[in-house]
Amino acid sequence: MKISNQKALFNIDEGVTYMNCANMSPNLKSVYEAGIAAMSKRDAPWLIRTQDWFEPAEELKSLFAKIINAESKSIALVPSASYGIAVAKNNIHLDTSQEIVVLDQQYPSNVYAWRELSKETGAKIITVKKQNGQSWTEAVLENINQRTGLVTIPNCHWTNGGLVDLELIGAKTKEIGAKFVIDASQSLGALPIDINRIKPDFLVTVGYKWLLGPYGLAYLYADEKYHDAGEPIEYTWLNKNGSEDFTKLVDYTDAYKPGASRFDAGGYPSFINIQMAKAALTQILNWGVENIQETISDLTMQISRLANERSFNIADENHAGHLIGLKFNEEKIKEISARFARNNIYISFRGESMRIAPHLFNDSEDIHRLFEYL
Q1: Are 183 and 81 in contact (CB under 8 A)?
Q2: What is this structure's pTM?
């Protein structure tokens, strides 16, 4: 079901054409108001109760779990995608005979940790490149074999939206016994993901892009097999059993809270960010991710049609419905970027792609304005 234009719910200045949600979402008014209310409460710390350290975070985990069709016990709160990837690295063990599969020009937060793992273990990194006419899914599947120990990829390419079928990749990795890690930062909140159909070992995502939340709060899903023996990358008192009883914190324990809570980052109760993120996920669930994808897909289809009419090159025809890239050379990118900046049009340039990432606050008028100046 398509959603009517929602610009009135966002803090966007008149005269601004913003199609850059892949960089950072504008604030929903409800998210902004939740942040202001949380800041006001933080002004009076004597009113913050013991349960305020824990209950809002658990509520947020439940909201996020609904978005990916998981159980809240499998969710941890972390500050960034790179933190979540580091947790995954800390719990994946490879040897010199194995390979790590990544995409060509994959986002660095999902590369650097695996380069370190490669140095530590001798496992070889296989960088998948697409051939002409080939999809990312086909290219990845071609590179998964009995030597593959880990596949660690996004749901769509961050530079141009090139789509990867996580269900097919997940099935192949499970078939050969490899580990599967997903960075969903450029899809989750705008593209439906069902954990039960994909079955990754870990999934991470930032919260400030398509999940419409604040910067500095991200989400980690950990498969149940890591709940009892998984190793966190820091040792905060907050994720230990009995931490809700402040009078007994010096009764040290090695026991963790159940589930993925052992991976929660120190300081995760973040009184302001949690409330903002709750408001954001509540709105996304009210809209429905399937409906968000259908609605934004209509906008990127318009962009694709107008690009073809003007003989612009689409970076990847098999792109996700919420993200599309047009290819230009470096000289043109500089020229277009300057022209857009002068006219309050905001998109991103990544690699050779002009990355266009609309949301429910955009409409056909925004698209025509973009092409007028393009």
Answers
A1: yes
A2: 0.97
